[in-house]
Design a protein that fits this description.
Length: 496
């Protein structure tokens, strides 16, 4: 019987995800040698494309804004000017207003363009940063006010840019790189929300700050492990679910006596009541491995658990923002582990996960970061785990731990993960209690079936709304008759 069960596991048939519908497409003649295009999805389910030139002299230049609707038909087009030393850095949007921030390196001046979302008309204002060495990394807008997450000397600084005032103000300074887990705007409760991880070296806690549009603190909340878990479980980075303050749920990772590697996920209301979910207990966590390696890994965990000796993987998890789900909330995390310089290290460690002197000294011992798979977990409104699933990635290394996949939740509650690969989009639709295939990919549709794709450059994809994504990039296309054309395209992809 045991042999038969193993045979079934070994020959387990994985369910294939349905390919996306590709209904709408728009393309404009454009060369990747001359032009740059930034694609930004809007709260009203529109799409904004910001077009600039790659090369220029000292003269004043133009950038073009084009808004498209759900059918990728243009709503409006407008042109604006900027000087060649100014670079478009960040874009943010509210229902009525779009915000574009231009920045000159080693210059304290920034330009803020405010654009009417309905008409494309706008205004521009100049503002002064607190320091010339501070570089804005993220931008959020709340009730006409702009908030920036800036980076200076490897520390985060939270800034408030009031469009009516010249000086940009500091709200929070010198946040460590690992401390800031969330920088978001909750449009339902009209608040800027920061989630910070704090530690005294032995114990950790997660602090959530909520600020109004004036930058004033309207709520501060602390979450820490219960007394019986306080010496074992170390809370790491966390994300905050949208919604009413009293029902908000934090979803984050925790380690076993370490900040560096993750043992599982935790959930908690802002008032406490923390729940823990070990990765080893998730049904699909190890499905990125071959069936044989998956069985061996689960058996190894079982042996260590029987001996009450934790087996600690050297994984980290890059958490995505929490997404609303018909059953509560969903979160996606990309699992990766660092590859060490000059020395081979195991993926797991039978000790308590304490780090080497090199890591404790602050010197990075890592050459690169290898991404193995992505996980998705769905929780109810109380933070109880309902189901999980996973998606095997290409097992490639990257110099920085940056997000690879984009995620979206369909109206039916399925979670689709996608990422670009040359002229293809790789995808997997995750469902409860279903082991899906990991090899699915689809070509971006051309205007005519008779056309041929010669080249594809700078391809990308963004989650748009619901089960809809928008793919984009440059293509060199040869029609059945006539001359080849080089275009920048937008293509919708709708997953079930």
């Amino acid at each position: 019987m045991a042999f038969a069960a193993q045979a079934r596991q070994k020959n387990k048939v994985r369910v294939r995800s349905n390919p996306p519908a590709q209904t709408y497409r728009v393309e404009v003649e454009s060369s990747p040698f001359d032009d740059k295009h930034l694609v930004h999805v809007l709260p009203d389910s529109g799409v904004l494309v910001v077009s600039t030139k790659r090369l220029g002299g000292t003269e004043r230049q133009e950038f073009k804004l084009t808004k498209y609707n759900k059918e990728l038909k243009p709503v409006w087009k407008t042109n604006y000017g900027h000087t060649s030393d100014q670079t478009l850095l960040l874009v943010a949007s509210e229902r009525k207003t779009l915000y574009l921030l231009f920045y000159a390196l080693n210059n304290q001046k920034v330009l803020l363009h405010q654009v009417n979302n309905a008409t494309g008309m706008g205004t521009v204002s100049e503002h002064t940063l607190p320091s010339a060495s501070l570089t804005p990394q993220e931008m959020k807008a709340l009730d006409g006010q702009v908030f920036l997450n800036g980076l200076e000397k490897n520390n985060h600084t939270i800034l408030h840019l009031n469009p009516a005032q010249k000086e940009v103000k500091i709200l929070h300074a010198s946040l460590g790189l690992e401390e800031l887990g969330e920088f978001r705007v909750d449009t339902l409760t009209h608040a800027l929300e920061l989630v910070l991880t704090e530690s005294n070296g032995a114990r950790s806690r997660v602090q959530t700050k909520r600020l109004n549009a004036k930058g004033e603190v309207i709520g501060t909340y602390f979450v820490q492990p219960q007394m019986e878990f306080r010496t074992e479980n170390t809370l790491q980075g966390a994300r905050l679910a949208p919604g009413d303050t009293l029902r908000k749920v934090l979803v984050g990772t925790f380690g076993h006596r370490t900040f560096s590697f993750s043992k599982g996920l935790f959930t908690s209301h802002l008032g406490g009541n923390t729940r823990y979910f070990d990765f080893s207990k998730l049904r699909h966590f190890f499905e990125y491995l071959s069936p044989r390696k998956e069985r061996r890994m689960k058996a190894k965990f079982a042996r260590h658990e029987a001996k009450e000796k934790p087996l600690l993987l050297r994984h980290r998890v890059l958490l995505h923002p929490v997404m609303p789900h018909p059953m509560g909330y969903a979160i996606v995390g990309e699992v990766y582990y660092p590859e060490y310089k000059n020395t081979a290290r195991n993926l797991y460690n039978g000790a308590y996960g304490r780090e080497s002197d090199t890591l404790q000294s602050g010197k990075s011992p890592y050459d690169a970061y290898r991404f193995t798979h992505a996980i998705a977990c769905v929780f109810d409104w109380e933070g109880n785990l309902l189901w999980d699933n996973s998606y095997r990635l290409k097992n490639e290394t990257y110099q920085e731990p940056t997000s690879i996949v984009k995620a979206g939740v369909s109206p039916e509650g399925n979670i689709t993960l996608v990422y670009p690969e040359e002229e293809y989009i790789r995808y997997k639709t995750l469902k409860p209690n279903v082991s899906g295939a990991n090899e699915e990919k689809v070509e971006v549709r051309l205007q005519e079936a008779s056309e041929k794709l010669y080249a594809s450059n700078e391809g990308g994809i963004l989650h748009w709304y619901g089960g809809n994504f928008v793919a984009y990039g440059f293509q060199r296309i040869k029609p059945k008759q006539g001359q080849p054309r080089t275009v920048f395209y937008l293509q919708n992809m709708t997953f079930e």
